[in-house]
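Below is how a single chain appears once it has passed through the pipeline. First comes the sequence as given, then the structure the pipeline wrote out for it. We keep one example in the README because the format questions we get most often are answered faster by looking than by reading.
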Amino acid sequence: MSVPPDDAGARRAVAPVICYPSESLQQPDLALYRRARAQAVQTAALRIPPRAACCFEVPAGHFFRITSVEGPQVGDLNLWYLHDLSERFYSGKTRALHGSHLGIGARMWSTFPHLRPMATILDDTLAWYGIDEHGGAVHDVIGTRCDPYTANLLSGRQYQYHHCCHSNLTRALGDHLGLPLHVAETHVHDVLNVFMCTGFTRDTGQYFMKASPVRPGDYLEFFAEIDLLGALSACPGGDCSAVHSSDAAACHPLLVEVFAPPEGALQGWEPPLPNGYDRSHGR
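Resulting structure:
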């Protein structure tokens, strides 16, 4: 045990500083997006079966919506640039810029060296939830995705479960692109946990989950800033109220819909360019 110094209280009392103030970020034109969305028509609809995942494509300037149907269900979302899988969603940097849970106006950012907005959250029927008394909130970018490796590790035995979100996303991407599973798996990455209610315990700092407040009809809607390939897994944890990485929880489908605005509805908008850093790294 370390001995607290005499000025321990003063050290703890130092005010925190936000690491990445986001006020200087170019803000999305939500009013423009909403006018375009009001005129948009559905071009695709995909039902994600329980404990499975599917891929979908969204052109830049289109919208996509994830909806809970039949019962409370959380989903794990991966995004890639449609034309280059090496540019994918960067949950850590998104968390640093927007916080641990995403809401309306937050953007999903892509990996280095691109670091540009991939999608912007336009609407959220769970925006009312906020942060609860336990420190829980919805749509987190802190959990990585349930996976068979961690399940095997924590089970203390050779536990072989194949419908964790990691495996679901791997199969979906492999099927969609015709990739062997060992190749597809290398492209699966940390997720946006759609509808999941999570936080950190105040005493031990451990990641926790609790029953999602999502109900049938609730949705999270996005504007695609660039051409996107998405994959969504209907998590085997169901509403994540108790367990995951097993068939024990009640699970339900999720619905993904894509909407196209009419030509000219996004007058003045252009897809964001890759990050402007010159990549010289001091040489």
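Residues 108 and 119 are 5 Å apart (CA to CA).

See the next section for the split statistics.
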